[in-house]
Amino acid sequence: MSNLADSSHASRPTIAWIGLGIMGSPMSENLIKAGYDVTGFTLERDKLDRLTAAGGTAAGSIAEAVRDADVVITMVPASPQVEAIAYGPDGILENARSGALLIDMSSITPQTSVDLAGAAKDKGIRVLDAPVSGGEAGAVEAVLSIMVGGEQADFDQAEPIFEALGKTIVLCGPHGSGQTVKAANQLIVAVNIQACAEAVVFLEKSGVDLRAALDVLNGGLAGSTVLTRKKDNFLNRDFKPGFRIDLHHKDMGIVTDAARNVGAALPVGAVVAQLVASLRTQGDGGLDHSALLRAVERLSGARV
């Protein structure tokens, strides 16, 4: 039995993980639990300590992390960070071996993913864009939705890795397609949170038992994963970040820009993008995106 386990462990690709934030840390730990050898690099020492405590290996640089890896996974905040870790003499493309698979799980512009895939091809490195949805809880529980752009053969190779991280795993099309679907996801989530926030303020000002109201609403057509995941945030005014307003602001910029480029109108999305932006300028950028409730409360003259 142990021999079987050892041989299956040995046949698994070695993984370099770059970016160990709110999402990256639990995701990399789930790969370790699934039996993968994970070498990680990030800028915060305490995050590297957390990785080694979970059974991973800490690297001193991107170059060191990726040098011998079969698969390199990146999970950083936005396009500029992806470009910073991918390009240049100290970056992934110069230091990963030819034939490696680079899976970028960050949420960035579709064009950045297309450009990265093109640059990597010149180095003999294959690329998938594979952004995720499900937030911190989805990362911890390994039930993320993973939307992928790239080649079918690369997706097939990566699928066992994705299965250790998420539940709904779909190849959406060529390079950049995963990011386009993620942009649509962020549009739906933001509008949904805004609608829930408006309902919460309306219910409270009407004197209704909020917990009871949200329970019954979530059991009908108004129910959603957003309401299930964020109900306690609303009830307890707990805005500890699972997904920060700052990042959702970035994502709303991505989706409004991408929609403009293809000629799609986002009238409601544009309004919610402005509400997210205003919340950020009011100093709430570091809070969870459920803090859209605070914006509605300010507009309604309610408590904040």
UniProtKB/TrEMBL annotation:
GO molecular function annotations of the record: 2-hydroxy-3-oxopropionate reductase activity
Pfam entry (one): NAD_binding_11
Residue span, 6-phosphogluconate dehydrogenase NADP-binding domain: 14-173
Gene3D superfamilies the UniProt entry points to: N-(1-d-carboxylethyl)-l-norvaline Dehydrogenase, domain 2, NAD(P)-binding Rossmann-like Domain
PANTHER family: 3-HYDROXYISOBUTYRATE DEHYDROGENASE-LIKE 1, MITOCHONDRIAL-RELATED
Family stated for the protein in its record: Belongs to the HIBADH-related family.
UniProt protein name: 2-hydroxy-3-oxopropionate reductase
Species, as recorded: Streptomyces tauricus
UniProt lineage: Bacteria, Bacillati, Actinomycetota, Actinomycetes, Kitasatosporales
